[in-house]
Amino acid sequence: MVVLNKIYTRTGDTGDTALGDGSRVAKHALRVTAYGTADELNATLGVARLHAEGEMDAQLARIQNDLFDLGADLCCPDMERDAEAEYPRLRMADAQVTRLENEIDAMNARLEPLRSFILPGGSALSAHLHICRTVARRAERQAVELATMEHVNPAAVKYLNRLSDWFFVAARIANDEGRADVLWVPGANR
């Protein structure tokens, strides 16, 4: 159980922060940037949920929980030492990726195929989900870059890749199952 009885610690006042394994790194380290962007995505998703209801809201709530799992995974480097950790490390699992894929397939089955690119917008929920999509892509790029330098759980990268696809399809669902999508008209304003 997590107990947060004091919010500020002053330990980061000199520009460094602790990772999940207790090691300290600069606050601008790529690992911190990657899990910080996952946190930003979670906050952005919280705003999107203000416009969601029913099953969509339940799915978004599950994703918010997954994003905390993702942050916990990304903040703990060196997976090879997981067995030595005092407490079991929380790592993203392929089952979380598979759940997203199944949900994408179910939503996509309700949509007509796209015949044009779409512009972010339409309903408020759709617009917010498109913002989530772009933040998820940024988090994915950061995790992929981190993986070129340090070990990153492959399931975490796969999850972010599927998640941006999930947000795209969900944004279409939020636009009256694609009927209210805003279509791109190439060169319309030349």
From TrEMBL:
Assigned GO CC terms: cytoplasm
Family: Belongs to the Cob(I)alamin adenosyltransferase family.
Official protein name in the record: Corrinoid adenosyltransferase
Gene3D superfamilies with a match to the protein in the record: Cobalamin adenosyltransferase-like
Pathway, per record: Cofactor biosynthesis; adenosylcobalamin biosynthesis; adenosylcobalamin from cob(II)yrinate a,c-diamide: step 2/7
Listed GO MF terms: ATP binding; corrinoid adenosyltransferase activity
Sequence ranges assigned to domain Cobalamin adenosyltransferase-like in this UniProt record: 7-173
Keywords of this entry: ATP-binding, Cobalamin biosynthesis, Cytoplasm, Nucleotide-binding, Transferase
Subcellular location: Cytoplasm
Lineage, top ranks: Bacteria, Pseudomonadati, Pseudomonadota, Alphaproteobacteria, Rhodobacterales
Entry coiled-coil feature ranges: none
Name of the top EC class for this enzyme: transferase
Alphabetical GO biological process terms: cobalamin biosynthetic process
EC number: 2.5.1.17
Catalytic reaction(s) noted: 2 cob(II)alamin + reduced [electron-transfer flavoprotein] + 2 ATP = 2 adenosylcob(III)alamin + 2 triphosphate + oxidized [electron-transfer flavoprotein] + 3 H(+); 2 cob(II)yrinate a,c diamide + reduced [electron-transfer flavoprotein] + 2 ATP = 2 adenosylcob(III)yrinate a,c-diamide + 2 triphosphate + oxidized [electron-transfer flavoprotein] + 3 H(+)
